[in-house]
Amino acid sequence: MSDAMAAPRAKRADDDIEPLLAVEELRTVFYTDKEEIHAVDGIDFEVYPGETLGIVGESGSGKSVTARSIMGLIKSPGHIVGGSVRYRGENLVGKSDAELRAYRGSDIAMIFQDPMTSLNPVYTVGNQIKEALELHQDLSGSEATDEAAELLESVNIPDARRRLKSYPHEFSGGMRQRALIAMALACDPDLLICDEPTTALDVTTQAQILDLLEEIQRERDLAMIFITHDMGVIAEIADRVAVMYAGEIIERAPVEPLFADPKHPYTRGLLESIPGRNPHAARLHTIEGNVPTATGPARSCRFAPRCPKALGGCERIRPAAVPVNEGDDGNHVVSCLLYPENRSEEWRLDAHESQETIDDANNEPRTDGGHENEPADGDKPTEVTDE
Amino acid sequence: MSEQAHSQTGATEAPTAGAATDDETLIAVENLKTYYETDGLRSNDPVKAVDGVSFEIERGETLGLVGESGCGKTTLGRTLVRLETPTDGQVSFDGTDVSTLSGDDLKAWRQNAQIVFQDPESSMNDRLTVGKIIREPLDSYEWKTPRERRARVRELLDLVGLRSEHYYRYPHQFSGGQRQRIGIARALALNPDFVVLDEPTSALDVSVQAKILNLLEDLQDELGLTYLLIAHDLSVVRHACDRIAVMYLGNIMEIGDTERLFTDPANPYTRTLLSAIPTPDPTADRERIPLRGSPPSPQDPPSGCPFSTRCPMTVRPEEWDDLSEELWDRIDLFRTVLRERARGADTLGTRVRRTIGLDDPAADFEEIRESTFGDVTVPEAVAVEVDETERRLADGGEPAALAYLQDRFGSDCDTNLPAAHVVDDSGRTSRCHHHREDVAGLDEPTSARPDR
């Protein structure tokens, strides 16, 4: 079953279907008086048309900053200091606010965690949907009202026409999130970024919203980036998953292999600590220590201090994203010195240190040729210690 | 968490409480009600947060309390430790009724029952040191000498996995998980028998949550604690609890052994709730039972079964036995739409407009008819009822229309609160009319509705 799921994705990467969105070496840093926070520290991923990429991580891992960086919503003291966000090949990083506005909504739309704060309490829901329609579809008057009612109906709000006249406070939490999804759809986007859209909702409402998003995706061939801390939600909605830890993506894989056979020690620890996956365990597995704050660019593996499998090299080499086994199709990628599994430890340490070796050897999809990696340059260790 | 065998008294008839009744009962709750008085302009109905619940908690066990937000689970927990005063009913603790205690008696009893709050950010005073926070209950009860109190705090810090040098630090210097440990230490300061854990891990990341759950389990083993664990995360409850109570709109819909409840839920609401949990396994089959509409207001709960307005498995009157599932479903939807409208129309503005004839409640009736019945064939018998509903709506507004629909399509579900039927040999009980002898069971194909 997992092969069946993975195959079309693998094909996609091989067939050179252009990704809708390609994020490369993205870095977002927040400068405060006290310190620099490297909230997003050199991440890569692509989103292909019609698929759902799940980004999962604990609080502070940089998932929301990633979403905001894509949308160009990073405000001072935060800055995007490097990398690119390519939407249909066009780099969005460095574009002015006015230029970005052309993309927001009509190409890339976003829904947030708390639906109440995203709606204006003094206008009716209908008013707010019609505003979006007027801006993006150039509809107004009764035409806009018809379209707005249709949109509300499409997100399964019964009695839609009457509901247009309601104010946000008259809606339940789930209905507000539906209304926001309707507003996002009003602009007919190709990519929808969902930042913890169900976290504030009850499980029953969450289930409805997840079903709705899947239905909409099928109908409109929408690509989604779905950000959440909930592994259960990821398992249900994502086609591929990126696991974030302290500003970095430490593992990327199609959803089934990720859950069936997680490779990074952090992903393993995280999955083992979920009560839902281990209902009969007498004790829950825990990960020692706490998530660190990234106050500088990564020069080592940030998980090493908590890792049960840390090697001598973990404290001084920043792991590159490599396939689980050398020669794999590059769909399951891990940033860990334990991989590629089929190579000796010495080879792996060397390879991770120089980085390009592995990239070249395996046509890893994220690199279109061996582009130079900044962190490796500035990161010259003194000596190699074998364990 | 405890290893007690709950099934040993399987044959016990326990119509009001799910627990096996033996002398190990620590807390017995009977017909407990907690209402919040309101003084609204239009209605003085109280908010019925807890509306008549009965159950028992055995010494040393963990009872889980689950339900959606607003179902009254936190109010129930707070009432058990007397942070709220019950409106009616009894809570006996170790055999004594504590629901009417006040003054010194209440204070003296409170040492036995403590609570850990959900949000470790807002449940402690940021200006006090951690030591002072944990010492406060000891100071308040003038427990032994100040020196012994300080020693006790150090002991507590150690007990919850913090270090004694943390005594002089402030809460803001700690992470969420550590703050929750401080909250647990404070709750344990006076050596209580019973601790209410109100969503103790819902503000925490999973890896931190695992640590806190393990800690709570260790403390229970070590100190012989009895827990009421309130949570909306059902997987947490399944992991940690011996028995589970499922709450909806102030009522306990089902209560019983955790594994049995999870593997073979008896109540339609429990089934719905369990079917909604996202499983962290992408290969799992899911068959979700969809839930219609929004939960009713606890100020104006449905007159029969609390879940009747959203239940996908309501009992169907014999008269309509031959309607197709789809059509019956549309009739349900029709009623839901009118219910939602009734709620929306219940404002001063609408009332005034209607009185002076500016708002006709049936003006856009054709739209409702079209959106609910537009794509199905409606037999004459049903069409007649829909026409009559329109007339009632025009004359008496939504309440009149709803009353008519209830009369024509309603059943016991709409009028009578189902009794708590014993559903298995472990004494699990469930409130649903389908458990009655004279009504077809939920899994019997004749009148049971498939889960779509």
TrEMBL record, chain B:
Record Gene3D superfamilies: P-loop containing nucleotide triphosphate hydrolases (3.40.50.300)
Residue spans of biased composition, Low complexity class: 9-20
Superkingdom of this protein's organism: Archaea
GO biological process, alphabetically ordered: peptide transport; transmembrane transport
Listed Pro residues bias regions: 293-304
GO molecular function list: ATP binding; ATP hydrolysis activity
Keywords: ATP-binding, Nucleotide-binding, Transport
Keyword Nucleotide-binding: yes
Domain spans labelled ABC transporter: 27-274
NCBIfam families, A to Z: oligo_HPY
Keyword Transport: yes
InterPro entries attached to this UniProt entry: AAA+_ATPase, ABC_transp_ATP-bind, ABC_transporter-like_ATP-bd, ABC_transporter-like_CS, Oligopep_ABC_C, P-loop_NTPase
CDD domains (alphabetical): ABC_NikE_OppD_transporters
Annotated protein name in UniProt: Peptide ABC transporter ATP-binding protein
Similarity-based family: Belongs to the ABC transporter superfamily.
PROSITE patterns reported for this sequence: ABC_TRANSPORTER_1, ABC_TRANSPORTER_2
Positions of region (Disordered): 1-23, 276-309, 426-452
